[in-house]
Design brief:
Blueprint: E1 2-3, E2 7-12, H1 16-28, E3 33-36, H2 44-49, H3 53-58, E4 71-74, E5 82-83, H4 99-102, H5 117-125, H6 143-157, E6 165-166, E7 169-170, H7 194-205, E8 211-212, E9 222-223, E10 229-230, H8 252-255, H9 257-260, E11 266-269, E12 273-280, E13 283-290, E14 296-306, H10 310-320, E15 343-350, E16 365-368, E17 387-392, H11 416-425, E18 429-436, E19 445-453, E20 459-464, H12 469-489, E21 492-493, E22 540-542, H13 557-575
Parallel strand pairs: 1-14, 2-3, 2-14, 3-11, 4-20, 14-22
Antiparallel strand pairs: 4-5, 6-7, 8-16, 9-10, 12-13, 13-14, 15-18, 15-21, 16-17, 17-18, 19-20
Helix pairs in contact: 1-13, 6-13, 7-12
Length: 583
């Protein structure tokens, strides 16, 4: 085993949050900052060389290999867990940039009440009426705290959108239910596609308020405050699951890494798989990782920032013996609790005319938030939070989307009849999506699997996760609402009822998995304090969506970035001046 020369800060993970933290530290301090990333470094040239639909959309070229590491899943503590051998319900990115390279670009702010959700629901419905198993929590940080950090992230990414609430005043064309913002978006929204215009017209007929989805795909050429320039979106449709061939979509590799490469004191090491955070007597000592040649390396450091994906953050804390594992039976412990994913539903719809759906982008679409959160609930619907409804024109790629047709169109799913029907219905179908909040339940959590291991022999992370009646009720309500919208759009809705199936690892929900190392004001129920500093190790900071105590309907990236700069301000402005616990 090799022990290297110490550095000031080691950041584990070279995705959006890890690189954003490195950017703040190298800009505002003279510290030596090392980022360890276990995947490869890809360039814009690599992305432009191949947009293979099979390789990326079907074989998941940009995702972590399940042969190296995966999770196991069980529905309850009474069940046996089995490994996930092929990704389906979520897609963890691999390499510098992580999921920020293959993301769609959705860039939402969370609404103010979401940061105080436990208190909000108790006031809204009455504390005694909330389910005993409900584990949602207040964050200890508020929307007002994060509003300037949201703006910093929006400027860095060049988010295209339309404000609906400027300084507390409603603005036509935007989301009137968003939290108040101090600034209009950096860029105007993306173009309205034909499908989006039909959805907008239909939802307005129903009295709702459609708005363009905020997008990190620039609507026009843009130069951010760091001097990084990017071209406008080409609407090629190769976003979700791909790095941008044109360099338009905001990705860590084209927004943050070019800045860091010019900074003294910054170093990036790829193919470096961190296996342990080293600590002794309440202080971190550094990390131990496997280098590109397979050698074990100890990297001493004064401060460690854990900034990998949600599952990897949680698993590495478990493997390193940092924190108290959560016990679902007693409710004690914190590490691994509040596992949430995403509640998806909606309706597949068909049209008697083409939609030109092959042109689009990952975050090209329209959404309504009239039903989001609990603003449209009565308390008698059996649910405490609902979600948003949207249509997307992400680009119908030729292989991944071919063969969609109304149920009963053909007798077989192969042969000449099927091919003719597939051609008949190609570009005539779309989805009205429901993207629902997944509230935290005490029985959904993560821990280490006692049986299965990764390629190094370390225990895999185990999911204990299933849908409850709450999620089934969300989908039933969403089914009714999306069918109303389909009729208003003049579309034929597919006659398939909302699913009541159990959570499964094969049906894609989203890559938005939260929890495990949640934020809060007390070490009794949270892993990190409101600044994302670990309660047990003051020189360890854990950033990313692992800190989210529950999952809203909006995508997590913008909030993860806002929390990163919020955390960086505390680390630099408070902790470095007087090292120790900040709260």
């Amino acid at each position: 085993m090799t022990t290297l020369k110490p550095v000031d800060v080691v950041i584990i993970g070279g995705g959006f949050t890890g690189l954003a933290m490195a950017k703040e530290l190298t800009a505002r301090t003279s510290l030596s900052v090392l980022v360890l990333e276990r995947g490869p470094l890809r360039t814009a040239t690599d992305y432009a060389a191949s947009m293979d639909d099979i390789d990326y959309s079907v074989r998941f070229r940009m995702m972590q290999s399940t042969a190296d590491e995966t999770i196991t899943h069980r529905h309850s503590v009474r069940d046996a867990a089995v490994p996930v051998r092929q990704y389906g319900s979520f897609l963890p990115g691999s390499g510098v940039g992580g999921a920020g390279e293959h993301w769609s670009g959705h860039s939402y702010r969370f609404t103010p009440e979401f940061f105080t959700l436990r208190s909000h629901l108790a006031q809204r419905f009455g504390a005694s009426r909330l389910p005993d198993a409900l584990a949602v929590q207040d964050w200890g940080v508020t929307y007002d705290d994060l509003e300037p950090h949201y703006w910093r992230a929006e400027q860095m990414l060049g988010v295209a959108g339309k404000a609906g609430n400027l300084g507390g005043k409603t603005v036509d064309g935007g989301n009137p239910f968003e939290g108040p913002r101090a600034h209009e978006f950096p860029l105007p929204p993306l173009k309205l596609t034909y499908l989006s215009s039909l959805f907008s017209e239909g939802t307005r007929k129903l009295g709702w308020h459609p708005f363009p989805i905020p997008s990190a795909l620039p609507s026009q050429a843009y130069t951010n405050p760091d001097g990084i320039s990017r071209p406008p979106c080409l609407y090629c449709g190769f976003c979700n699951g791909y790095g941008c061939m044109a360099g338009a979509k905001a990705q860590p590799s084209n927004t943050i890494l070019p800045v860091l490469e010019r900074r003294r004191g910054f170093e990036l090491r790829t193919a470096s798989w961190v296996r342990r955070i080293l600590h002794r007597s309440g202080r971190v000592q550094g990390v131990r990782y496997v280098d590109p040649k397979g050698g074990e390396v100890v990297q001493p450091a004064t401060t460690v920032v854990l900034a990998s994906w949600t599952l990897n953050n949680t698993r590495l804390l478990f493997l390193s013996g940092v924190g108290t594992p959560y016990d679902a039976a007693t409710g004690r412990g914190t590490l691994g609790r509040n596992l949430t994913h995403q509640v998806r539903g909606g309706t597949r719809v068909f049209f008697d005319r083409p939609l030109n759906g092959f042109m689009g982008g990952g975050a090209c679409g329209v959404r309504i938030a009239d039903l989001d959160g609990d603003r449209a609930l009565t308390g008698s619907d059996g649910i405490v939070r609902f979600g948003a409804i949207q249509v997307l024109t992400q680009g119908d790629r030729p292989i991944a989307t071919f063969g969609t047709m109304p149920r009963g169109s053909v007798k077989s799913n192969w042969g000449s009849e099927w091919k003719a029907a597939a051609m008949r219905w190609y570009d005539h179908s779309a989805a009205i999506d429901f993207v629902g909040e997944h509230v935290a339940w005490r029985q959904n959590f993560m821990d280490l699997d006692p049986t299965y291991t990764d390629k190094f022999g370390d225990p895999l992370l185990r999911f204990t996760l299933d849908w409850t009646e709450h999620e089934h009720s969300q989908r039933r309500l969403a089914d009714a609402r999306t069918r109303e919208i389909a009729r208003a759009m003049g579309a034929q809705a597919e006659d398939i009822p909302a699913t009541r199936g159990r959570y499964n690892v094969t049906s894609y929900q989203s890559t938005h998995i939260q929890g495990g190392a949640i934020i809060g004001t007390s070490p009794e129920w949270s892993v990190v304090n409101p600044y994302l500093q670990h309660w047990d190790l003051p020189d360890l900071w854990v950033i990313g969506a692992s800190a989210f105590p529950q999952n809203p309907s909006p995508n997590p990236t913008l909030t993860a970035l806002a929390l990163t700069t919020w955390s960086a301000d505390a680390l630099i402005g408070k902790y470095l001046k007087a090292p120790g616990k900040l709260v």
